[in-house]
Backbone:
């Protein structure tokens, strides 16, 4: 039990905050839906409920992925977060289907909902909280890529670097981006329905929110399926390649692979050195390179092999050519 609590303290904080906030939001929206019967509110309730469950599982998965390797699982548990996220998107997929189905029924059989002020008040309250969580996720993205920025520049920069964020942070970012857009859409639909009497517009909003949820399902599924298989991080390959080639004793890079498993990076490197160097000198080169590479964010292990210089240039500044 002590180990479990220790691991939970290492869980993704953005996912935990998002799970708590979305739980509060889903309760508020659910109560509002029971009183008003508004279909756009139903869509938002399902959306927030799915997000809360999803993000809670993400937090647990990100924490358990930090567990140290065991005799039974010598490669560690880094990919566990990807497996949890693959399971979590199923929840969002089910919620998305229910949301679209309810919207379709409302278009066919539109009905007047009550409690206009309740609907607008709850949706506005939820929107503010979702924007807060989204901003926190944006800040977390920038923190994970090693850039500390403040103000409105966080918004633009976080979109630019989203691909380099941890899987859990990326999921929270995408879900709350869709949640914010869905909240605005629901508010617009409620206002149009109330003041124009076009009741089916709430059903259209529900369908659009469901489609946005399916977009998150597809994007997260593809990203984490690649993570489960072990995806090459080409950007980090380029960075580590330049770092290695800057060493005066490294003549060339024969092979370089940076494999991303969950939130961890595993580096496999084969370099060419002067064949006249002693074993002790080669060992010093290995220690020096391992220290530099391990200092890079996310790298958990480095494997280095040596080959004698062959006079043929392999490394050209892009991901190394594989043998």
Residues:
């Amino acid at each position: 039990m002590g180990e479990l609590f220790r691991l939970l303290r290492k869980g993704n904080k953005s996912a935990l905050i998002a799970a708590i906030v979305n739980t509060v939001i889903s309760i508020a929206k659910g109560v509002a839906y029971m009183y008003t019967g508004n279909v756009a509110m139903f869509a938002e309730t399902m959306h927030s409920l799915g997000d809360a469950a999803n993000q809670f599982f993400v937090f647990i998965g990100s924490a358990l992925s930090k567990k140290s390797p065991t005799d039974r699982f010598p490669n560690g548990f880094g990919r566990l977060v990807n497996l949890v996220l693959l399971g979590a998107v199923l929840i969002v997929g089910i919620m998305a289907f229910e949301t679209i189905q309810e919207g379709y029924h409302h278009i066919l059989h539109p009905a007047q909902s009550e409690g206009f002020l309740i609907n607008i008040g709850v949706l506005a309250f939820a929107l503010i909280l979702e924007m807060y969580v989204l901003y926190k996720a944006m800040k977390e993205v920038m923190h994970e890529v090693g850039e500390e920025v403040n103000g409105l520049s966080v918004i633009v920069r976080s979109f630019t670097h989203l691909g380099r964020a941890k899987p859990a942070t990326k999921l929270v970012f995408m879900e709350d981006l869709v949640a914010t857009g869905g909240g605005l859409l629901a508010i617009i639909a409620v206002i149009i329905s109330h003041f124009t009497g076009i009741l089916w517009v709430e059903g259209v909003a529900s369908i659009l929110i469901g489609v946005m949820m399916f977009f998150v399902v597809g994007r997260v599924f593809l990203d984490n399926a690649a993570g489960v298989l072990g995806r090459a991080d080409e950007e980090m390959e380029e960075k580590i390649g330049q770092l290695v080639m800057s060493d005066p004793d490294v003549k060339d890079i024969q092979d370089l692979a940076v494999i991303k498993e969950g939130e961890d990076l595993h580096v496999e490197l084969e370099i060419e050195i002067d064949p006249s160097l002693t074993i002790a000198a080669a060992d010093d080169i290995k220690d020096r390179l391992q220290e530099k590479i391990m200092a890079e964010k996310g790298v958990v292990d480095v494997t280095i092999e040596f080959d004698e210089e062959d006079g043929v240039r392999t490394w050209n500044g892009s991901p190394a050519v594989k043998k």
Observations:
- Residues 244 and 289 are 7 Å apart (CA to CA).
- The domain at 2-229 is CATH 1.20.1510.10 (Alpha-lytic protease prodomain-like).
